[in-house]
Specification:
With 349 residues, this protein is α/β, with parallel strands linked by helices. It has three domains: 3-62, no CATH class; 66-249, 3-Layer(aba) Sandwich (Rossmann fold), CATH 3.40.50; 253-343, no CATH class. The chain contains twelve helices and eleven strands. It has helices at residues 3-15, 22-37, 42-62, 84-98, 111-119, 153-163, 174-188, 207-220, 239-249, 273-283, 299-303, 332-343; strands spanning 70-74, 102-105, 124-129, 147-150, 166-169, 197-200, 234-236, 253-259, 262-267, 293-295, 321-325. Strands 4-3-2-1-5-6-7 form a seven-stranded parallel β-sheet, with helices on both faces. The chain has a four-stranded antiparallel β-sheet with strand order 8-9-11-10. Helix 4 (84-98) links the parallel strand 1 and strand 2 (102-105).
């Protein structure tokens, strides 16, 4: 872009009052201008504009609630209120809110409506997809400002992954399977933050055991996935177990981010020297070099406070202890196991 054009964009952003991250706003405008110069097809431009509008609206809706962790609940829209799964989803929504979490669902009926009903209107988000059939907003979230309607599945999925601190999947159809595999794939490849993923069913249900049999008997047997990938999910059969699993994940661990090749794990309490030594002994094989070190905030973090992975209380993380390591980016399942081990470690008083 010519210097005169860059100056005009910079002036426009300044005059508009965009004081927060003006450089990124300028980059958005510059990208739009490049699309125009590229003579992008009208259909592409409409797609880009609508997608950006959806992402912007969702970001605005979530912003006031950034200080609360959220649990996404997936499951079939076709399960009726009299089913055991529906009643269990409603129980989960109610109990997870009692522990301080908010609930995110797809905004529809069935399992989604049940979890939304249990959570209550004030404690839930609905990420509704506009379809010609089946999907409509459930009565709990209908008309609420936290109901966000999406035209595209991909913008909807971005928000599920971006805003969620734990996933709970009940039995469901293609959509539920798609959402579950999407979460697993993104964590397995390091493209999304590592979070708890719980496959939940009634005490008598065997839906997820059947699913796991396929995963083990075909995918693992054919070496299409790794044994460590099984650390990403947990099959459970009660709401209490699910909630305890989520809470344990955030017992010591808070969040993490990447500083170039280094993984910076924020923890709520420092580990004891003995615990840190055990951690290094158990996970030495996943490190590219060096060891796991316990430090305070890194200089790079202080310079870029706006970007973090999984930080629920983004304004309160500077004082947290850091575990810094340079891991191999080939086995994110082992990084999930590392977080589990951190949560089981002894901490200083």
């Amino acid at each position: 872009m010519k210097a005169k054009e860059e100056a005009a964009v910079k002036a426009l952003v300044a005059e508009s009052g965009c004081a927060h991250s003006p450089e990124l706003v300028e980059e958005l405008i510059q990208t739009a201008l490049r699309l125009g110069r590229d003579k992008a097809p009208v259909a592409d431009l409409k797609l880009f504009v609508r997608s950006l509008k959806e992402l912007r609206y969702a970001s605005k809706a979530f912003q006031p609630y950034s200080d609360r962790r959220k649990v996404a609940v997936f499951g079939s829209a076709r399960l009726a209120p009299e089913t055991a799964e529906f009643k269990m989803a409603e129980e989960l929504g109610r109990k997870i809110v009692e522990r301080g979490f908010m609930v995110i669902t797809g905004g529809g009926d069935g399992i989604m409506g049940a979890a939304q009903k249990g959570a209550g209107r004030d404690n839930g988000f609905g990420l509704n997809i506009l379809l010609p059939f089946e999907q409509r907003a459930n009565e709990t979230i209908h008309g609420d400002k936290k109901l966000i309607n999406f035209n595209y599945f991909f913008t909807r999925k971005v928000n599920f992954v971006k805003e969620t601190d734990a996933f709970v999947l009940f039995p469901g159809g293609f959509g539920t399977q798609d959402e579950g595999f999407e979460c697993l794939t993104l964590m397995q490849t390091g493209k999304a933050k590592i979070t708890p993923l719980i496959l939940l069913d009634t005490p008598e249900g065997r839906y997820w055991e059947t699913w796991e049999f396929f995963i083990k008997n075909d995918l693992l047997r054919m070496k299409l996935i790794s044994p460590s990938d099984f650390h990403f999910f947990k099959i459970l059969h009660s709401c209490e177990e699910a909630i305890e699993h989520i809470q344990h994940f955030y017992k010591v661990f808070d969040s993490y981010r990447w500083v170039r090749e280094r993984m910076v794990i924020r923890i709520k309490k420092p580990l004891t020297p003995e615990s840190l030594a055990k951690l290094n002994g158990k996970f030495q094989a996943i490190l590219v070099s060096g060891k796991i070190e316990q430090t305070g905030i890194l200089p790079e973090e202080a310079e870029q406070r706006s970007w973090s992975v999984g930080a629920s209380f983004r304004g309160q993380i500077d004082d947290l202890t850091r575990l810094v390591l340079t891991p191999k980016k080939t086995d994110f399942g082992m990084l999930r196991l590392l977080i589990d081990t951190i949560n089981d470690s002894e901490t200083e008083a």
